[in-house]
Amino acid sequence: MSKEIALSQGTKKEKYEGLLPQLISLVEGESDATANLANISAALKETFSFFWVGFYLVKGDELVLGPFQGTIACTRIKKGKGVCGKAWEEKKIILVEDVSVFPGHIACSSISKSEIVVPLIQNGIVIGVLDVDSEELANFDATDSQHLEELCSWLVTIL
What we know:
4 helices, single chain
């Protein structure tokens, strides 16, 4: 059955606050993690017009590309490498205002200018990361950090 997300108007904060309950409803009753991650990626991209939104999942000693919306992406990332690998290693959100000055940044696309990565932490272990890229410099802030962390904290309860 097809479901739609009602795109919220207003501030970034209001958009996040309107989106989370809809995401919960969207995945209700669906047990497949791939389907849920794909729909969540699509909803975030549609709501905020981000350049790239997706998930990398921990498989062994690497992050492996999971469901995403956007251009072709890097397939595998080692722990500690790039923004995603660093967020995994440090178990914390990493917000990068300008990816060109981030040491060791992995450039999957030259269009990406800023990035935020939120680890998916389940029982103290990082099981993946949510990676969001923007075409604009300094596009992410504390509002994104707070609401994406809330989203990921909920998300690990259904994975």
